[in-house]
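A reminder from the course coordinator: this example appears on the midterm review sheet, so study it carefully.

Given structure:
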């Protein structure tokens, strides 16, 4: 059964599992009587279920109405607490204007007229039901007692509903939160009681109703807040886009809004720039910073954490944890966060997980800074800590001073720490925060003497006595603490003396716990009660205020002097540049690298300008240079020296197939890669000879090209593709036309002549100067060369007598040559004779091959008519030539379509790698021109930041 209260409450529609609505009026009596008068169908539900649905709908309206009342009540409570009745109205109007837009609720919630109309209808319904409804006791087999109880219950609920409606309306006008809440709870109880079969079930219904109310309220508030934020964001973006669009229409470039930075952040950036510029911490950097020094385990890191109000440093039991200087920039902000200078991650210092990550990151950076077996490092770790109530200053936490080195430390650890500490303290504008452990004997201190030597007058030293609670407990004479804090015990002097308590010896204690413990200790301390120390000398809060005041006073006194020194430095560098490089623009390594990148990539683009014909010609030449040795030594000469044409063709076919299946594809790919590399280097060489060439890039360009060449690998599938086409080409032994025949003969002739030239040079190296050279140029043969000449003369006679001599000397021929030489008193062995024979016979064979090539020039028609002609070597070289042409064409396509682009990609990858590697830039871009431009750029940048900071500092005054 379903109840529905329509928008204007002019009718009440009640349906009993029917799709037809019944208007409230004359039909309602008939319909209700049909329920209670005995004419109900089998599908008719009990009346308490109808009331439950009615009650559920009414409860939803009460929830929404109560929500609006609660929102008003929040304002009334806040306004009354802040300004009273007069300011209440103004606060309410301001608050109401800033609230999310809830107009969409008007379509859901009824207004006052609708509410009054609904209340009247409800009263009319009550009267009609009381007067006209007769409940049939047979419904659901109810007894007479149940019938009377149910009828009484229904009448009472109608009265309660009307009364509640009137009361809620009145309370909404009065904006009374407590009464509305009680009323809602009463109605929850009244609605839930009839359905609760047990007391526990009634409580459960009440809790679920209250929980649902809270969930609806929270969900609505979150949705509206999110909606309002998104709306404001879109409005801002729309406004900015309209502004930029207007500027673009006017032909003006929109100005980017500059983010306003805090004063301490600007100062910290200046210190970071100075640290990078002056790695050795020389006299160029004289800006103030607070240097935290002390003996190891004296509590200096704990003091810094108390000032930063977070445990940001790793801790170790007796182990040295601070291994490098840590620069901490403190500034005030709405959220307590920390961030490293070179990282974008923010660590939420209110979350223990983020604190643990931060401590691990600090420890990791410290260990990474220690290289080469050292224990401590001078590499600065920079971080920023922001939070509510933090004093603005820059602190540098240094490794603790040690008196004894352990075996696991480097041999120079103690001296390195002292030198690093002195270097920071020797800055005439550094504020020295001297930390002394109050729980140990003053005579065991190492830091006080070091501070006294660096700042004997104490004009920039602040003394801090830690662990005062332990000192008060252990010292028999409290006046000793008074002497320390009055500057009468240690020989050093200081601007101020402070006593702090940085913990109870528990490393897991929160900062707030330590602060409470510190305040309670000093509140009950005998030192204060007995006037041993002043109240202004205690707690880390007073310490941080004093340090910040001293820090900013010194900053204002010294920053302009530092800016003037960099202005003079800049003038000197600019003068040097004008004198040495008058026509060049100042470019640092990054700018020079980008110029070199553009020139290298331009040369890669020039590869596309090489025509296909030029590529194939160069590939042919390079490929023959790579395979000619194999063709002559492993295929042509062994087959030709057999002496029979049938044997020659068989041997050639076998050798060619083996070659094509094994090494030829790899040789072809190597030839293509070398051709691409050679062509690219030609473009680079041509660019280096141009008039506008700048030789400062040469070393970088060579390194980039060589690295890309080493990385480049030809595609693996190229070898398989080449193997197939090479095998098919080499198997074709036919020469179709005269032009191919002439090209093959010409190729054979040129190849044989080239090999003959090599053979002549080999013989000349063996025999020494010729007769002509000996007579005309007064050159002489050595004894060995003279012997070789005699052997050659004997071998020439053998070849002259047998023009078709096989390539190997017989034993009898070797003996004859040696005997003939012995008659002339020349002793040689068989190996000596064979060495000369190989060179002589090779020249003899090539001369015969060259003669056959001449004879075959006009033998094409005889070959075409399949007549017996001795031109098998022409056919061989034709097959090799055709194979090289097909291979060159395939390699050219691979180069232009794939490999040139892949080489371009690899060169870009190398350039990207080098662009991120500052060491590579320093190594490959060298010279005074580079270092002077870099130094001038850094000095300008530092001066600009100093001037920007001074301007902001003066505005703050």
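Designed residues:
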């Amino acid at each position: 059964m379903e109840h529905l209260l329509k928008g204007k409450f002019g009718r009440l529609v009640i349906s009993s599992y029917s799709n037809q609505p019944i208007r409230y009026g004359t039909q309602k009596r008939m319909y209700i009587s049909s329920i209670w008068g005995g004419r109900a169908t089998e599908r008719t539900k009990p009346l308490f279920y109808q009331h439950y649905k009615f009650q559920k709908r009414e409860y939803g309206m009460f929830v929404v109405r109560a929500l609006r009342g609660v929102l008003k009540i929040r304002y009334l409570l806040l306004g009354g607490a802040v300004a009273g009745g007069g300011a209440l109205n103004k606060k309410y109007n301001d608050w109401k204007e800033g609230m999310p837009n809830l107009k969409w609720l008007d379509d859901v919630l009824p207004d006052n007229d609708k509410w009054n109309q609904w209340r009247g209808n409800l009263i009319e319904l009550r009267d009609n039901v009381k007067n006209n409804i007769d409940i049939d006791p047979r419904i659901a087999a109810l007894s007479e007692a149940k019938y009377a109880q149910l009828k009484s219950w229904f009448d009472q609920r109608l009265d309660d509903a009307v009364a509640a409606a009137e009361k809620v309306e009145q309370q909404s006008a009065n904006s009374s939160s407590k009464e509305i809440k009680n009323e809602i709870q009463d109605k929850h109880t009244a609605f839930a009681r009839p359905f609760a079969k047990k007391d526990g079930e009634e409580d459960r219904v009440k809790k679920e109703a209250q929980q649902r109310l809270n969930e609806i309220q929270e969900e609505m508030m979150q949705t509206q807040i999110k909606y309002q934020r998104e709306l404001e964001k879109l409005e801002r973006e729309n406004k900015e886009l309209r502004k930029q669009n207007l500027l673009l229409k006017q032909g003006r470039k929109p100005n980017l809004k500059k983010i306003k930075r805090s004063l301490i952040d600007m100062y910290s950036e200046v210190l970071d720039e100075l640290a990078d510029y002056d790695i050795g911490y020389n006299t160029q950097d004289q800006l103030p910073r607070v240097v935290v020094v002390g003996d190891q385990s004296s509590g200096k890191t704990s003091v810094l954490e108390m000032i930063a109000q977070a445990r940001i440093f790793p801790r170790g039991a007796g182990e040295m944890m601070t291994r490098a200087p840590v620069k901490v920039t403190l500034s005030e902000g709405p959220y307590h966060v920390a961030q490293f200078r070179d990282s974008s991650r923010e660590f939420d210092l209110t979350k223990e997980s983020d604190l643990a990550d931060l401590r691990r990151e600090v420890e990791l950076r410290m260990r990474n800074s220690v290289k080469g077996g050292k224990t401590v490092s001078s590499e600065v770790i920079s971080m920023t800590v922001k939070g509510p109530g933090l004093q603005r200053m820059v602190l540098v936490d240094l490794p603790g001073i040690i008196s004894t080195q352990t075996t696991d430390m480097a041999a120079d650890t103690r001296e390195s720490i002292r030198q690093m500490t002195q270097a920071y303290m020797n800055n005439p504008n550094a504020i020295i925060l001297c930390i002394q452990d109050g729980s140990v004997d003053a005579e065991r201190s190492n830091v006080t003497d070091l501070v006294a030597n660096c700042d004997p007058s104490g004009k920039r030293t602040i003394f801090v006595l830690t662990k005062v609670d332990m000192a008060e407990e252990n010292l028999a004479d409290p006046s000793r603490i008074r002497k320390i804090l009055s500057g009468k015990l240690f020989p050093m002097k200081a601007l101020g003396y402070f006593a702090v308590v940085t913990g109870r010896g528990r490393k897991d204690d929160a900062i707030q716990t330590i602060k409470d413990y510190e305040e309670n200790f000093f509140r009950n301390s005998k030192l204060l009660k007995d006037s041993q120390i002043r109240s202004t000398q205690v707690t880390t809060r007073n310490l941080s205020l004093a340090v910040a005041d001293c820090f900013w006073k010194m900053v204002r006194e010294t920053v302009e002097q530092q800016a003037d020194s960099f202005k003079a430095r800049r003038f000197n560098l600019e003068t040097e540049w004008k004198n040495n490089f008058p026509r060049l623009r100042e470019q640092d390594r990054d700018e020079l690298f980008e110029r070199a990148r553009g020139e290298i990539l331009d040369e890669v683009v020039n590869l596309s300008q090489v025509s296909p014909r030029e590529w194939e010609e160069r590939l042919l030449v390079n490929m023959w240079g790579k395979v000619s040795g194999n063709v002559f030594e492993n295929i042509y000469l062994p087959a030709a020296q057999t002496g029979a044409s049938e044997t020659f063709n068989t041997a050639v076919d076998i050798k060619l197939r083996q070659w094509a299946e094994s090494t030829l594809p790899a040789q072809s790919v190597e030839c293509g890669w070398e051709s691409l590399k050679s062509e690219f280097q030609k473009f680079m060489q041509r660019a280096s000879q141009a008039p506008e060439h700048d030789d400062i890039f040469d070393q970088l360009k060579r390194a980039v090209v060589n690295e890309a060449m080493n990385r480049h690998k030809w595609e693996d599938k190229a070898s398989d593709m080449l193997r197939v086409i090479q095998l098919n080409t080499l198997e074709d032994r036919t020469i179709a036309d005269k032009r191919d025949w002439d090209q093959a003969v010409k190729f054979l002739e040129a190849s044989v002549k080239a090999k003959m030239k090599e053979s002549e040079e080999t013989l000349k190296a063996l025999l020494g100067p010729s007769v002509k050279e000996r007579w005309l140029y007064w050159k002489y043969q050595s004894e060995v060369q003279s012997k070789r000449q005699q052997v050659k003369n004997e071998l020439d006679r053998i070849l002259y007598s047998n023009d078709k001599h096989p390539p190997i000397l017989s034993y009898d021929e070797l003996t004859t040559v040696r005997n003939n030489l012995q008659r002339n008193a020349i002793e040689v062995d068989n190996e000596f004779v064979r060495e000369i024979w190989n060179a002589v016979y090779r020249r003899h064979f090539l001369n015969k091959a060259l003669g056959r090539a001449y004879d075959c020039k006009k033998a094409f028609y005889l070959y075409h008519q399949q007549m017996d002609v001795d031109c098998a070597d022409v056919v061989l070289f034709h097959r090799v030539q055709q194979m090289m042409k097909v291979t060159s064409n395939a390699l050219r396509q691979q180069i232009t379509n794939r490999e040139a682009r892949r080489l371009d990609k690899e060169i870009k990858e190398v350039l990207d790698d080098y662009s991120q590697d500052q060491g590579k830039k320093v190594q490959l871009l060298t010279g005074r021109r580079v270092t002077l431009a870099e130094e001038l750029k850094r000095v300008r940048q530092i001066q600009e930041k100093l001037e920007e900071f001074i301007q902001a500092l003066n505005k703050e005054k």
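The chain has a mean pLDDT of 77. Residues 205 and 637 are 107 Å apart (CA to CA).
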